Amino acid sequence: MRIVQVTDSHLHADPAARSRTGIPLKQFSAVIDAIKAQHPDLVIVTGDISQDETATSYTHAVEQLRALSCPWCWLPGNHDRVDLMEAEHPLLEEVDLDGWRMLLLNTQVPGQPHGELGPEKLAAMTKRLKADTRPTLIAMHHPPVEVGASWMDAIGLQDREIFWQALSAFAHVKLIVFGHAHQAFAQAYAIGEGQVGVYGCPATSDQFLPEAKAFAVDDASRPGYRVIELDEGQWHTWVERIER
For 210-235, b where at least 16 C-beta lie within 10 A, e where not — what string? Predict the structure, then answer.
C-alpha cells in the first residue's frame, strides 16, 4: 500500500496571497499534481491546512484534494479551525490499511503554537492500541521528538515523554509521521527492545531552516511531500520535492 503525506499548506482565502517564498495555493496545487503521478492508495494531510482560518481556505484545499483518484484524510494543526475542517470533510480517528492501520491524533491546543495530547487523548490512543495489534502508523501534527531546531523544539509536542511511555507497551507501532516542522526529518527512535521510525515532511508552503536556534526560512529548499510504502509489517519511505 502506498500512502502520501502532505503537510502545512497554510492557505489563504485569497488564492493569490503570498507567503515568505511563494504563493501557497499555487504550490499546494503543484504538489497535488505531482502526487497524482505516484498513484497513492491514500493521502494524509497532517495539519496547518489554513493560514488565515477562513472557510474559503479549506474550500481551496478540498477542491485540490478531491481531484485525487484515491481517498484522503486530514487532521488539524495549530493554525487550523476544527469546525471549518469538519464542515468540509470528516475528521477521522482511525483508518484501515488492510494489513496495517493508521491512528490520527489531534495534538492541537487551541490558540497555542505548541501541541499536547493530554490524559484523555492518551487514554483513548492506548485503548485503540490494545484493541488491535496490526502494524500501526500514527499521524500527528506536532513533532513527538526534538528535530534539532531550538525554536521548533519549544513548540513541539509538550507531553512527548508521556506519549512515548504510553507507546512503550505496544511493539506493533512501527512508524510516526508529523508536520509542523516544515522540513524533511528521519529518526529511528529506540523504545523498549525495538525502534519506531519517526518522520517529518517538507511543507507545501515555506520550508524552515534545519537546526536553527531562532525562526528562519530555508530559501534553498523546495516544497514537497513524503511517500510511504507499507508491506507486511515493513515500510519504505522517501521525500519528493517539486519546483517552485
Answer: bebeeeeebeebbbbbbbbebeeeeb
